[in-house]
Amino acid sequence: MNEIVIKGGTVIDAQGERRVDVGIAGGVVNEVGPNLQGGRALDASGCVVSPGFVDLHVHLRQPGKEEAETVETGSRAAALGGFTAVVAMPNTDPAQDCVAVVEQVRRWGVEAGLCEVLPSGCLTVGRLGQQMAPIGALAAVGVRIFTDDGNGVQDPLLMRRIMEYSLDLDVVLAQHCEVAALTTGAVMHEGCCSSRLGLPGWPAIAEELMVFRDIELARLTGARVHILHLSTARSVELVRAAKADGLRVTAEAAPHHFTLTDEMLETFDAVYKVNPPLRTPADIAALKAGLRDGTIDAIATDHAPHTPASKEQSLDAAPPGMLGLQTALSLALGELDLDLGRVVELLSTAPAHIAGIADRHGGPVAVGRAANLTVFDPNATWVVHGAHLASRSRNTPYEGRTLRGRVRHTLLHGTPTVIDGEAQR
């Protein structure tokens, strides 16, 4: 007997598109077919039923910065955005560079029960770029992705040794690509706009040099490398060439980087300050092309909550970052001109494979598969108001903007975490 039946929707996954109901029992998909009966009905009329979304890049802030976000509040935002799994970045305080902190973050995720929280591990101790973190011990407790996100590993020899060490661990090394010596004091993209405004700029080459370096180190070592938040046209070209050469390189793009330009900083509003910075229309066009042709594997939000007080500071003092979990789907649907199957692949199937959780997330909506599912209306419109988002913070760059596409239901292991757009916990 089905416990839940998702009725009247169109299933879209890696197997294609079909009009069927989905029956769920015991946390797994129990039946897929027309006119299913029994159990609680969740209306999916006019909606897409897809595997749950997976975000490779989320800042949950806990431990250390609970005033901006907690694992629970960030998980709630994730569920409302259709995400059934998120990778928690390690730039917490203390950093996620030891088993104890990683296990605590994982426990908080289980206790919240809103999505699966996958703690990442640091590449270096304290994210200081000086000494390799205990990657082997962290991998032994299930950490799959390692990164110093917020910092790029500046020392190429250290990065090479980390890549060599990683080869027998089946892990992914995710790099924040920024040559720090080129970005000191920068608050926005270096270009015509920064010159006109008289603001210190973050040059594209600061990203591209490290993208190039790590691609070549991956070529040398055979390591598996994931490039975080691509933002420039040249970076896209470098990843495209690496893939053509058969290297184990993947990449992600954040919605703000394919929807907003550096000209937003003409307002001097720090809500638009982010790292890497918003770039030019030409860069946006390149990112969209990369998402379309498969050069860029995944959409990842880089959800980065900050308190209102911190974002109300001057551009040089305010921290970089913006919210993203609840707007990612809408921005993908409204800005990318992709078919629904490709959007689902970018938000679900591909990131699940990169994160190493394809056994339970991102897979086909099929009998026997874990019922981690998202139901979304691709045509529903809504207005973004930071005060109405689930995050503890309000730093959305889309305040007041009308977006198309919204999550209706989200299910984690067969249990609804969101019903009709309302979080259940």
Q: Would you count the extended β strands for me?
A: 21
What is the global morphology? Answer: globular
CATH architecture tag of the largest domain = Alpha-Beta Barrel
The portion of residues forming beta strands comes to 15-25%
Question: Rg to the nearest angstrom?
Answer: 20 Å
Strand order of the largest sheet: 3-2-7-18-19-20-21
Q: In the CATH hierarchy, what is the class of the largest domain?
A: Alpha Beta
Structural domains: how many = 2
Distance between the termini: 26 Å
Largest sheet: 7 strands, mixed
Sum up the structure in keywords:
TIM Barrel, 7-stranded mixed β-sheet, 425 residues, Urease, subunit C, domain 1, alpha/beta, 11 helices
Written overview of the protein:
By secondary structure, this protein is of the alpha/beta class. It has 2 domains: 4-48 and 368-388 and 400-423, Roll (Urease, subunit C, domain 1), CATH 2.30.40; 53-355, Alpha-Beta Barrel (TIM Barrel). The chain contains 11 helices and 21 strands. The chain has helices at residues 71-80, 99-112, 135-140, 156-166, 192-197, 204-221, 233-244, 281-293, 308-311, 328-335, 340-355; strands at residues 4-7, 10-13, 16-19, 21-25, 28-33, 40-43, 48-51, 53-58, 83-88, 116-119, 145-146, 172-175, 188-189, 201-202, 225-227, 249-253, 298-299, 373-383, 402-412, 415-419, 422-423. Strands 3-2-7-18-19-20-21 form a 7-stranded mixed β-sheet. The protein has a 5-stranded parallel β-sheet with strand order 11-12-15-16-17. Strand 11 (145-146), helix 4 (156-166) and strand 12 (172-175) form a beta-alpha-beta unit. It is globular and about 65 Å long. It starts with a strand and ends with a strand. The model has no long low-confidence stretch (mean pLDDT 98).
